[in-house]
Specification:
Blueprint lengths: L11 H13 E9 L2 E2 L3 H12 L10 E2 L5 E3 L2 E3 L5 E7 L3 H4 L6 E4 L2 E12 L6 E7 L4 H14 L5 E11 L4 E10 L3 H10 L12 E3 L8
Antiparallel strand pairs: 1-6, 1-8, 2-5, 3-6, 4-5, 7-8, 9-11, 9-12, 10-11
Helix pairs in contact: 1-5
Amino acid sequence: MGKCHVKLGCDTEHVIQMKSAVSEMIDAVFDISGESVPVNYPFALWGELVRHVPELEADDSIGILPLRTTGSEAGMLLPKRAKLVVRLPSSLASYILALSGQELDILGSRLIVGNVKLREIQPYATIHAHMVVGAEDEVAFVKNVSAHLAELGIAASLICGRQNSLLDRDHSIHGYSLVIHDLKPEDSLRLQCMGLRSDRRYGCGVFVPYKVISDLN
């Protein structure tokens, strides 16, 4: 993902807000190798991360970006250059580094965690989340998200995507994919750093940038 060009002329307060948000949250980007993961992998993945880095458990601000996978009869296949991205406070960076070299057991699927790079979060006018937790009715979902953004003082446009769910014996999470566009740089950073709604540790409400809105389907 390339960096966006922030418009010149932002007032001092906005610049401070942006720098503060970037300094508080970062992405730890790990190389991973493995063949596949089960459809409901996020629950087991979080459990394995906490097993290796117990300091993650108590922090609800941490988000795990969904793995890029391809569905098949054998499960969710991982690409050769798969990445595990953990969004977390910079104060936990020294702990998360311990994941490099570890083996994760994801419901019988084996993932090897490789090298890591720490990456600052960049502001983009258009961001996307694979699933934001909310009402099962689409109209109610959009209404609730719009109201929440208004409470935060964020003016933007929404595109509600397909309905998604994460299910296993102990969890039942429902929501929609969501695009938020026409964001100011400082608001983009806020939403990426703080996420939206619950269950970010399972990949929900975690936003990533999109450069071109036509790529969002």
